[in-house]
Prior knowledge:
- The complex is a heterodimer.
- Chain A is mostly helical.
- Chain A contains 13 helices and no strands.
- The termini of chain A are close together.
- Chain B has 29 helices and 31 strands.
- The model of chain B is unreliable at 323-389 (pLDDT under 50).
- In chain B, a hairpin with a 5-residue loop joins strand 14 and strand 15 (443-445).
- In chain B, the strands form seven sheets. In chain B, strands 3, 4, 5, 6, 7, 8, 9, 10, 11 and 12 form a ten-stranded mixed β-sheet that branches.
- Chains A and B meet through helix 2, helix 3, helix 5, helix 7 and helix 10 of A and helix 19, helix 26 and strand 28 of B.
Amino acid sequence: MLAARVLGVLGVLFVLSIIVFAMMYLAPGDIVKNLLGNRPANPDVVAAVREQYRLDDPVVVQYLTWLKGFVTGDFGESIRLQVPVAQAIGDRIAITAALCGLAFLVSVIVAVPLGVRSAVKAGGWVDRAGNALSILGLSAPTFAIGLVLLYLFAYYVPIFPVYGGGDGGLDTLRHLVLPAVTLALGLGAIIVKLTRTAMLRELESDYVTFARSRGLGERMVRRIALRNAAIPIVTGASLVLTFLVGGTVLAETTYALPGIGTLLQDSVLFKDIAVVQSLTLLVAVVIAVIALLADLAYLLLDPRVSRTLGARA
Amino acid sequence: MDGARSTEIDALTRAIDLHSLRILVAIDEHGSISAAARSLGYSQPTITQHVQRLEERLGAALVARTARAARLTPVGALLARHAPRIDASLTAAAADLAHALGRRGGQVRLVAVPDQVGSVLAPAAGRLATLQPHLDIVVLEAPDAESALDMVRGGRADVAVAPMPLDTRTGARPAALRTSFLFAEDVVALTGSDVAAPEGRVAPASLAELAWIGGPGTCSDAVAARIGRRAGARDIAVGRADAAVALAAQGLGVAFVVESALQGVDLPGSVRALGLAPALRRRTIAAILPEAARIDGVASALRVLAAHRPSPVGVEAILDARRRSAAHRARFTPLGGVGTLPNQAEEITTMALTSGTVARTAAVTAAGALALAGCTASSDPEPTSSAPVAVGVDTGEEIDSITVALPGSLSSLYVGSESGILNYYVASVAQEGLVAVDSTGALQPALAESWEQTDDVTYVYELREDAMFQDGTPVTAEDVVFSLDMARDETASPGLAYYMTNIDTVEATGDSEVTITLAQPDAAFAGNMSTAGAAFITSKAFWEEHGGDVGTSESLLLGTGPYQVTEFVPDSHVTFERVDTWWGDQPTVKEIRIDFVSDESTRLLAAQSGDVDIAFNVPFAQAEQWESLSDMRVEYVNDLSYVGLYFNTGVAPFDDAKVREAIAHSVNRDAYVSTLLKGHGEAATAIMTPESLGAVYSPDEAREILAGIPQWDYDLEAAKAALAASSVPDGFEAELLTPNTGPQLGTAAQALAQDLAEVGITLNVREVPIEEWLASLDPSSEYGINYMWYFSTLADPAEIPSYLIGLDNPAQYDNQEVLDLLTEIGAEKDKAARIDLLVEAETLQAEDVINVPLWWGQSATAFANDLGLEDYSPFTFVSTWPAQLYRAG
């Protein structure tokens, strides 16, 4: 089962690498011009650069060269940064991971209780406020939220720094609060909606009515309902987590954070194919792993699933 | 000992007076004391007395007397040589004084070779007399060009008009004189009508077998030398051009003369005047003493002379070529109105004259503060800022740290790997070149204590004894050679190799001596050895330790500057710390942190919160908000950038000159500058920036010269007419890409598109990432109209033109005459002469409408109010600028 899944993921990665490589190859822009800048190019210089990066090879050969390196663990060298791709990504992954983790944590901690409460007291003031907030979070663009938060909490009430990644440890955490909240707003909005819908459906189902009629306490009832609503919530949250990758590009630009998002953006523009390839595949792997984790979570959350699995085995 | 020497010089200086110098010159000229006395209007004893007194005071014999004659001793001659220039300076001072006191008057003496007295001097003198009635005009004649120039050198004339030798490619420019290009005329061949001449041009070699009429006054000898023809038995030598023409008219041989020699001559039907293939042109220049440039009368004479155009003669091929450009010129309407004059030649003269002056005034009024900002670059230490905020005086206080906010990230600290303008700014903090560029654009010692150009292609640099890298190791000649070799290497330094292609060898010729040999003479080379060019000196050991990957976050950067890089995180920041290994005075700032903040709103907010001390390249769209910050000021300075449109002549319909003309007429550059740039820029009249002429001309003079290059004025009716006459009279559709990093380029393009829509051309403007725009600059791209946005760091006048109209230019513009001129420019050593040639090349390209200059850019830099910067100029940030920072009180 797991093996089939891994094979499937590998197949997807392979196809993805071809598509991304082809798109990068066809995208407008010329890596030699990007390196030389806007100045008269001496034909010798152009030829030397093209030779150095093997730009005159047929595209298939270029792809195969890259693929060969990639599967043997050599991710290539970033033309733009002049450092190995692994190092370029390694230098930045921590801050993006921290940012995503923090954003996800904030959104789950706030959004799930808020969604539950909205469902329980549907139509109440918490529901209405949560509704308004999630509409705002869903519709406002990330960079706009970022700027508003900057004005509020870095300028008028200067409790957070305006930009940058900090010097590590607590300082970095302090620098990440505003970007994480920015991202969490959009993320949380979806989770609130999902939680509320799932909870509402569970609360209206027969077993809840039955439980209530048996005189179970409201807290107990809610716990049971939440457990049953957990599967759609986890599915939704895992999907939403993958959206974070796109959001980080904007948040990292607004807050001038040296993370994966800005790296991806700059590399795409520069046609730094090696970096883009590794990054997209990395993101694809992360998404696959998240999906796998979500599936594994079903086992924990719903004994029926493990039972069917066990029965099949 | 030094003191003793300086007192001695002092004493000598006091001994010399202008009057005695004039007497020496007169004696030299006339060969006897009595004749000198007569010419000066003194008695003989007075003169003798004067000379004797001077000889006594100097303790040296100046005049050697014989019974009937007197001549100068070597010492006397030496002294006399300085006299004309001192005289000119004094006259300039007197003229200034007269001007200030409201008195007018003065004299200007014009000299020319015989055949140009009538054709050039006479009309100019007449024109000058009407323009400046108070001026006393003297016209002189000199037997040949060299003696005319000598008369100016000797102070016997103020302005010499002289033809340049035809083989200027090797010939030197007149020494010690400032020259201006006046006009060029074709050399024509007078032959029998039976000569085969496709398209009215003939190759001189095909005439070699015939009898040639040569001698002074003709160009036959120069043509013969060029094609390597030996004198034939039937050749005739005559002294005057008209004699040669008359002989040729009688069919006695072939004569090569300049066009103006044919003026007023009726050629019989049996004789044809043919252009040469390849065309050969003789240039005529005006020469003055550099010191005389400020004398009013001389300046006006130059302007009138510059307006002179030789009258056309009936040589079909040449006329054809010229008709195109003359038609252009007629429609290069001057910026102001011009009254109609009866005489056509007169009219052209006036138009050109007015266009220069009016253009200058227009530039001054339209550009307002900017023109001022430009002027201050060389003279005033404190440039104009649009919101003048008084910066306090230097308190001498140490500054612990400053934060600089850049609008984008760097990928590498080494300029060879990434060479954007911001890379230069950052690298200049830590690295130095052999020389440095000062606030006027002149070169100053940096790592090299002194340097010398021993011949056309050899430069010898003497390194500083006390120069050290930031890790404490001394700088050796070997390090310098290695750094330059790496800069020449295409793969190690793709961004710098271009500058170094002309270098033949770089050698360590001593412990602290480096010799660079060029493959070809290049007047612009010296500047390349600065951090504004391609010299970023680093240590060989350091480079090898990191396997050549320098400038990355791992290896950082090692240089000789006052600051050492301590940390570099791409997309985040780079930090610098002051070191004590620098040879210069210790700067006041201890630590510099440069943050990369790519989002402009965030950067502004950071500045509002007081987190930023310096912000580079503030966008004009936000300038108002930056200016309104209470503790920061925004300073504008011309940044040596050029923005213009160019047409790719390989793409239809832009191969049609009429189409290009229609677009050129639709460009409203004054409006772009005043409304879109909010005045922070200057409408460009040429590809060269005025600053690039700074080595020779004052900013005002430079603007005047550049305004003299033909302009296409904003005139939609003319644009419609041009389109109607083109190959696509019903209009067409084209796309223009604008780089996302220059929003002002995008808005200007939109404005242009609106005007073009009225003309009948649909221009689709699309903003693209700068990388995509860069790729579209390739000559093989399918875009027929494109933006050019170029930042020059060296301010060499030839830098941008050689890119835009030189070999392999992005416009696929192939004009042999322009290419020839550029080759000549590369070899020309005299700076003024180079500029003359460049003006000529730009005139040709303007006539062909290849590049349409839009504006010369400015950049805005925001500074904290308690931070001062000495000598802020366009060159500041490409030299060790942190050393110029101070705490303002």
